[in-house]
């Protein structure tokens, strides 16, 4: 079984970079609403998802999309998917 070497903080950091590059805003809070506070629309969400899948080698199911409302919730969901898809539990040590 392959061990997941990424931490939850690394997922959040990489996700923050992806979002910051796309919306050209580098200073935003973990709980800022993607749509209301950052102006992320559905097309931008698709681009974010594509970059996450490519950079983190993870498949994001459509059922996860409603959870992508802010950085904190999105990072938590992506981390769970990464650990699940790598064959490890979500309790990987940071």
TrEMBL record:
Matches recorded under Pfam families: PP-binding
PROSITE patterns given in the database record: CARRIER, PHOSPHOPANTETHEINE
Keyword Chaperone: no
Organism: Paenibacillus mucilaginosus 3016
InterPro entries: ACP-like_sf, PP-bd_ACP, Ppantetheine_attach_site
Protein name: Acyl carrier protein
Residue span(s) of domain Carrier: 6-86
Signal sequence range: none
Keywords: Phosphopantetheine, Phosphoprotein
């Amino acid at each position: 079984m392959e061990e997941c070497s990424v931490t939850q903080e690394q997922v959040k950091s990489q996700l923050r970079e992806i979002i910051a590059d796309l919306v050209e805003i580098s200073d935003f809070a973990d709980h800022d609403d993607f749509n209301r506070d950052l102006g992320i629309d559905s097309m931008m969400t698709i681009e974010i998802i594509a970059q996450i899948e490519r950079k983190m080698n993870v498949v994001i199911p459509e059922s996860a999309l409603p959870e992508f409302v802010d950085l904190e919730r999105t990072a938590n969901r992506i981390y769970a998917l990464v650990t699940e898809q790598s064959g490890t539990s979500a309790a990987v040590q940071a």
